[in-house]
Backbone:
């Protein structure tokens, strides 16, 4: 059964029964809300691999590490497909100075003309390093399309993905194409339906589990 973990803004719907005690969670898109990650650490003793290339998130995490975060590893990097391994990418600054979410998409509706360069990491690298990953969360402001397109075959039990067709040149059809890709890899699609009858967030659970 899916349960809400974390705040309304930064949380996700997941099956806690598929999170073994002490397992590793890859959380890409930390921002300034780590309620989801902290709750998994509290409930399941998870090790969190938090990933975010934004400057605001780096400052936010540095402040939290001063208070002590235990098994929380923060990578100040952007998650990219394997074909872009070891690249530096441009991150376009959010046009609203009160918002934390920058994007590599120049066509993201919130993107300004200002940008900075970010180091990168791939899922392939992370899954080679951490062999007990029980969940992957992707909230990466449009970069999820490239990452899912080149998603490596994996037995990770569940994934939470937020798609950004609502604020970029990607379309809902593009999103459904990514969902179909995940379903072809053996995942069941559990969308969170909004008032328009569509979804932005989905939880994907491996069918064999």
Residues:
């Amino acid at each position: 059964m899916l349960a809400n973990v974390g705040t309304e803004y930064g949380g996700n719907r997941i099956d806690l029964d598929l999170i073994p005690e002490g397992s590793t969670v890859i959380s890409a898109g930390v921002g300034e809300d780590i309620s989801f990650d902290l709750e998994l650490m509290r409930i399941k003793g998870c090790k969190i691999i938090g990933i975010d290339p934004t400057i605001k998130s780096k400052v936010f995490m540095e402040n939290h590490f001063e208070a002590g975060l235990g098994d929380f590893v923060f990578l100040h990097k952007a998650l990219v497909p394997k074909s872009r391994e070891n690249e530096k990418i441009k991150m376009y600054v959010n046009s609203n100075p009160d918002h934390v979410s920058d994007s590599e998409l120049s066509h993201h509706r919130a993107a300004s003309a200002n940008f900075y360069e970010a180091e990168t990491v791939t899922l392939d690298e992370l899954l080679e390093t951490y062999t007990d990953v029980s969940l992957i969360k992707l909230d990466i402001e449009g970069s999820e399309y490239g990452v899912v397109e080149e998603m490596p075959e994996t037995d990770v039990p569940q994934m939470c993905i937020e798609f950004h067709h609502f604020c970029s040149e990607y379309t809902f059809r593009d999103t459904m194409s990514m969902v179909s890709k995940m379903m072809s890899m053996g995942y069941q699609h559990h969308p969170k339906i909004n008032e328009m009858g569509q979804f932005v967030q989905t939880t994907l659970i491996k069918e064999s589990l």
